[in-house]
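Worked example (supplementary).
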Amino acid sequence: MKALKLICLPLFALLTFQSCDEVEAPYKEDIIVVGGDRKVLVEDYTGHKCGNCPRAAKALHDLKDVYGDRLIIMTVHAGGFATVFPPSAPYYTYDFRTPEGTELDTDFGISAIGNPNGMVNRRQVNGNYVLSSTSWLGEISNVLGDASPAPVKIEIENTFDVASRTLQTEINSEFVNSLGGAHKLCVFLVEDSIINWQKDYDASPEDIPDYVHRDVLRTSMNGTYGDAIANTSAGTIDTKNYSKTLDATWNENNMKVISFVYNEVTKEIIQVEEHEVIH
Amino acid sequence: MKSLRKTLLTAGLLISAIASQAQLLNLPAEIHGNFQFDAQYYIKDSLIGALDVPEKVLSNGFGNLNFTKGKFNAGIRYESYLNPMLGFDTRYKGSGITYRFASYVNDELEITIGNFYDQFGSGLIFRSYEERGLGIDNAMDGIRIKYNPWKGIYVKGFIGEQRSYFSKGPGIVRGFDGEVSLMDAITSLNNSKTRITLGGSVVSKYQKDDNDLYKLPENVLAFASRLNITRGNYSFYGEYAYKYNDPSLVNATAISPFGIYKEGQALYMNGAYTKKGIGISLSAKYIDNMNFRSDRNATINDLNLSYLPALTKQQTYRLATIYPYATQPNGEVGFQGELFYNFKQGSTLGGKYGTYIALNYSQANGLDTTSLNNELGYESEFFIPGDSKYFEEVNVEIQKKVNKDLKVIANYIYTLYDKGVIQGLGDAYGTVYAHIGILETQYKINKSHSLRVELQHLMTDQDKKNWAMALVEYSISPNWFFAAFDEYNYGNDDEDLRIHYPNVSMGFTKGANRITMGYGKQREGLLCVGGVCRNVPASNGFSLSVTSSF
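After joint prediction of all chains, the assembly is encoded as:
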């Protein structure tokens, strides 16, 4: 073993023009978060049968400690790992999938590549929207590292009627700077802390009955790709109103409305906001 | 007089120099190329799990064009995936020029600009290659210089980026490799019967650290040294590789979500003895945390730098490909032993036409590791196999020519296959133990007509249970072939899933052109070449393939 290394070393020494960084403990760094009002949306595409997914989900939610409410997460169950077993099976019978999530997954080609994968503000890196879980952080800091004011401020107002389980949502998008090109507004509903089965390769046994599913996409209030914003010039406030009856099995106390403005051509999210259904 | 001679001599030299230049210029320019087009029409078949393909037809196609004139070479390749066929990465969608290069060679120096494929040693720290059937192409794009200063010695270096579908990966790769063939380089040893070759290589990749949470190494270096000795019928090859800290998505853990900082190591050794009628080969390898890629965020078959072939027999019979081994780059210890022997014609076991027998045994285990519960990940015992056995296979093959028209090949295979580990599915899938029997007969009807029949059976109590398969192939040389086969999962516990997978195909070959057409059902599974695999989803439909070269 050592002899083998010794044979290699002189050769290695000859090639000092080649570089190598050896990192020593502590490996962790303190993140310096730049100020500003920009927020970022990470869409984590996952499935309850995806054993590598909980690791990515945990690492992502841990970043909330660093970025606070400037990091907004939407977990989308879609693709092969999200399919359900027949009700006769003891687990993975609950269907987390949504038509909107499946449409996004297909259009952006996410689970086709594998899970976990996702998008950060639907920005393209090397021509790809789909980013693997370890590259989310880099893109998050690229977005949040921009201290200039967000060109649009989004305000969400929710009113929930308990008797009819109807949610009324008003979204006001105020354009601070003019935005060129066509833009749209999307409004999604997520539910946090759903307890159900999840496969996790880091756990033993791997099939966890009471896994806490975070920020799961439940539905959209205006379709998969939202509604057009007519006027995006500086000083304009665009107001849109939506309503949705919540499924009886959803816990409104854990639900949030996520709304974002995006460029219709590049798909890039310009700004995102989230607000609890009940506050 | 003297000066005249000198002038004449000079003129003569000049003329011959011009002549040789002219000769070079007059060398014929050659253009070669090849073309391939594959398409499939997909039919939805929910029973076998074949997905609905909205496009109905998917196709992969490419064409290579290479130009050579004297010492100058150039080439391009056009690829088109409209849209990529099932099982190929959807990021291939599109078409365009994916490979172009120019190179110039003279006796000592070879310079390549643009795309190139290359390999250092056995590929433990660097292999850039394409394997079209697996959808792998990690071609380099950059500059490569190869220099032969003396006979028996070469050094080469390159710098470049790696292809990733229709774009390039984010890393920059620098590589350097040198090799000395001692008996060629040292004059006094030129006639030695023993041939010794020594080689060494270094590969370093650069990728920006855009992670604010962890200190990630931006430059990751790996080196390897190798030794090759041959003498008469004996040969030995050994290569050792070491990789410095390389946290990445593929070695990430719950504690270190951006990858562990442990070093990587690999050792590969092979010894062989071959002589007419007999061959023995023994191989061993140790791989520990050697997933080396030019992008730390890459997964599956993307942007690999290291090539870690499986030490198992490359199976070709259909039922023997149901449980193929895939190399575990994060850690494994494997062994393989091979033996073949030809019983001579006229001997008791050889009979009139001789008998060929081949044995192959291989095994792959996990590592013996101790978890550290920190960013270094774990500690491992060098070259010591762990308790978990990923794969084991026993192959026995007998080939017997019965008479001048009939040849019979019989195979028995025993496979132990840890499906959860090999297919990355987790513990729950357990280990499959399978026995496979294969009987093949090749019968020459007359000078140009021949018939080949295969009968295969796979027996297992796990997974999808028993399979049977039969194939009939009729060839009319040199132009036509017709084949039909059926795979039948008759042992499946679920009666609805006792499915037949019938296939019919025919092909026509003339000169350098070949057209094949087929219809059939394809079971889902893994397609592996040398331990590198891709998922093949189930499909049902018509296929067409055209290949041509010039």
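Two points are worth noting when inspecting this output. Chain B touches chain A through 59 residues (CB under 8 Å). Chain B is about 5% helix and 55% strand.
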